[in-house]
């Protein structure tokens, strides 16, 4: 559910005094300063929009499993038989009795003729019955047209006798931090409630999903407001209230709304297909930190670092490689890693797009034909190896606080390393080393150093030496864990 708090706004009136000597007297004159003012009243706006906002009530049948614990009594006690018979009977009755669980939320009408209502997926998830309660007391049974867990959106449909009051989506990209907004919803089941606040921030990532770019607001949002609209001062829906940060469960002034731009595309697909249809690039990415940027000789930390490429995916077919940094997608700069999933998801399936990557310091343009993202898209398949066992002892050395060795059958068995993982194995890490700070552990396998493949400890030493000669302060390692999952890790080398 989604709560928020309206901050207390205090306006300070400053007075300045100017002294003027007149006949031996000093005259003081107050100087008025301009004061920022919010809207005088939103009564007309609230009255006009209230009928388009609905309260969503749901009911779900669950099997009762409320077992009652039996008191502990000594064996042979005269109460033992009585308690066993009583509590066994009570627990049997409870186990067989189904219960009705109800919940409340909010929603709003976007198509009055068709009876289309928008709410959050978590408001109606698992419900057996969904009822839309309108401002005039009308109650209509709602059916689910489609849901999307990744953006927490749901589209419902009711059958009204006459067209319903509806609201329009606005341009969420045009809002600015400090703009006034108004929320209408059903907090704590109280019914239609209006709150006003400002946009506190934009493009917030709260780690709720791969496409997070929430509008943050201090308009009071509480339990039951989820799925309700966030309006601008022209009465357009610029967000859908969906989450809060609250240690107590009540509003503390930090609430989040799904931007209208994000919602509109998802809602359109749910209405048309009953499901979402997103573009898929087929890469695993990670953030480009300042250390990674320095190790790649990048002037600034930006883009999305490709940590892995899915076999037979669009990126693999277009020859995008692990270690590439995607800096531009379909004509748009990728400033941060988290922007790329949204860009890809919003792009039409089957479209050929230009992807610009940084590869070993050079910009490379690659054309990729996007495919459809499936919920169960397979991960990279493992590959069996036919290599003969290595008879001689593995070569070892110490680099960057790590004891390294050539990967042989004995070490594979010792660290449970999959057969398709290749590279140089880390057998030990010094506790006070930079490698330890980066959480490199024994059993990790170094596949690349500075985007150059390595097979022996000597290879690692050679590449580290080149970096030192070039004045680099860190080395970018491509590491695989024993199961083959890879990640890029920058390790300091200045003290080596």
Automatic annotation (TrEMBL):
<dbReference type="Pfam" id="PF13365">
    <property type="entry name" value="Trypsin_2"/>
</dbReference>
<dbReference type="GO" id="GO:0042597">
    <property type="term" value="C:periplasmic space"/>
</dbReference>
<dbReference type="GO" id="GO:0006508">
    <property type="term" value="P:proteolysis"/>
</dbReference>
<feature type="domain" description="PDZ">
    <location>
        <begin position="270"/>
        <end position="361"/>
    </location>
</feature>
<keyword id="KW-0732">Signal</keyword>
<dbReference type="InterPro" id="IPR009003">
    <property type="entry name" value="Peptidase_S1_PA"/>
</dbReference>
<feature type="signal peptide">
    <location>
        <begin position="1"/>
        <end position="36"/>
    </location>
</feature>
<feature type="binding site">
    <location>
        <position position="152"/>
    </location>
    <ligand>
        <name>substrate</name>
    </ligand>
</feature>
<feature type="active site" description="Charge relay system">
    <location>
        <position position="226"/>
    </location>
</feature>
<keyword id="KW-0378">Hydrolase</keyword>
<keyword id="KW-0720">Serine protease</keyword>
<comment type="similarity">
    <text>Belongs to the peptidase S1C family.</text>
</comment>
<keyword id="KW-0346">Stress response</keyword>
<dbReference type="InterPro" id="IPR001940">
    <property type="entry name" value="Peptidase_S1C"/>
</dbReference>
<feature type="active site" description="Charge relay system">
    <location>
        <position position="152"/>
    </location>
</feature>
<keyword id="KW-0677">Repeat</keyword>
<protein>
    <recommendedName>
        <fullName>Probable periplasmic serine endoprotease DegP-like</fullName>
        <ecNumber>3.4.21.107</ecNumber>
    </recommendedName>
</protein>
<feature type="active site" description="Charge relay system">
    <location>
        <position position="122"/>
    </location>
</feature>
<dbReference type="GO" id="GO:0004252">
    <property type="term" value="F:serine-type endopeptidase activity"/>
</dbReference>
<dbReference type="InterPro" id="IPR011782">
    <property type="entry name" value="Pept_S1C_Do"/>
</dbReference>
<feature type="domain" description="PDZ">
    <location>
        <begin position="389"/>
        <end position="482"/>
    </location>
</feature>
<dbReference type="Pfam" id="PF13180">
    <property type="entry name" value="PDZ_2"/>
</dbReference>
<keyword id="KW-0574">Periplasm</keyword>
<dbReference type="InterPro" id="IPR036034">
    <property type="entry name" value="PDZ_sf"/>
</dbReference>
<dbReference type="InterPro" id="IPR001478">
    <property type="entry name" value="PDZ"/>
</dbReference>
<feature type="binding site">
    <location>
        <begin position="224"/>
        <end position="226"/>
    </location>
    <ligand>
        <name>substrate</name>
    </ligand>
</feature>
<dbReference type="Pfam" id="PF00595">
    <property type="entry name" value="PDZ"/>
</dbReference>
<feature type="binding site">
    <location>
        <position position="122"/>
    </location>
    <ligand>
        <name>substrate</name>
    </ligand>
</feature>
<keyword id="KW-0645">Protease</keyword>
């Amino acid at each position: 559910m989604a709560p928020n708090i309206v901050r207390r706004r205090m306006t300070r009136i400053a007075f300045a005094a100017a002294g003027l000597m007149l006949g031996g007297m000093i005259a003081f004159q107050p100087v008025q300063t301009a004061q920022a003012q919010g809207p005088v009243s939103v009564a007309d706006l609230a009255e006009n929009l209230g009928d388009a906002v609905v309260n969503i009530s749901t009911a779900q049948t669950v099997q009762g499993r409320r077992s009652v614990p039996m008191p502990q009594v000594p064996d042979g006690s005269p109460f033992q038989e009585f308690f066993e018979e009583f509590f066994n009977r009570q627990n049997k009755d409870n186990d067989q009795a189904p219960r009705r669980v109800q919940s409340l939320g909010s929603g709003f009408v976007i198509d009055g003729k068709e009876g289309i209502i928008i709410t959050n997926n978590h408001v109606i998830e698992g419900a057996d019955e969904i009822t839309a309660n309108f401002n005039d007391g009308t109650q209509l049974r709602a059916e689910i047209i489609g849901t999307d867990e990744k953006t927490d959106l749901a589209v419902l449909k009711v059958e009204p006798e006459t067209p319903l009051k509806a609201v329009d989506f606005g341009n969420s990209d045009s809002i600015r931090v400090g703009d006034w907004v108004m929320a209408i919803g059903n907090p704590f089941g109280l019914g239609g409630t209006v709150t006003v606040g400002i946009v506190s921030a934009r493009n917030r990532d709260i780690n709720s999903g791969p496409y997070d770019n929430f509008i943050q607001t201090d308009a009071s949002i509480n339990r039951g407001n989820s799925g309700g609209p966030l309006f601008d001062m022209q009465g357009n829906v610029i967000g859908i209230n969906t989450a809060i940060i609250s240690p107590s469960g009540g509003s503390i002034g930090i609430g989040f709304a799904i931007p209208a731009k994000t919602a509109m595309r998802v809602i359109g697909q749910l209405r048309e297909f009953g499901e979402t249809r997103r573009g898929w690039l087929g890469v695993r990415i990670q953030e480009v930190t300042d250390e990674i940027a320095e190790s790649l000789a990048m002037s600034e930390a930006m883009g999305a670092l490709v940590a892995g490429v899915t076999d037979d995916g669009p990126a693999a077919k277009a020859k995008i490689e692990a270690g590439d940094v995607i800096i531009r997608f379909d004509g748009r700069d990728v400033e941060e890693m988290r922007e790329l999933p949204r860009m890809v998801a919003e792009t039409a399936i089957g479209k050929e797009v230009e992807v610009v990557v940084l590869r070993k310091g050079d910009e490379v343009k690659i054309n990729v034909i996007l495919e459809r993202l499936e919920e169960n898209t397979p991960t990279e398949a493992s590959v069996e190896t036919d290599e003969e066992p290595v008879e001689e002892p593995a070569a070892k050395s110490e680099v960057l606080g790590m004891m390294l060795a050539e990967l042989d059958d004995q070490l594979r068995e010792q660290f449970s390393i999959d057969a398709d993982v290749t590279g140089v194995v880390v057998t030990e890490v010094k506790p006070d080393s930079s490698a330890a700070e980066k959480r490199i552990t024994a059993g990790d396998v170094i596949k690349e150093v500075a985007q150059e493949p390595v097979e022996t400890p000597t290879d690692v030493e050679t590449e580290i030496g080149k970096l030192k000669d070039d004045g680099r302060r860190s080395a970018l390692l491509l590491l695989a864990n024993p199961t083959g999952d890879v990640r890029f890790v920058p390790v300091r080398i200045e003290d080596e």
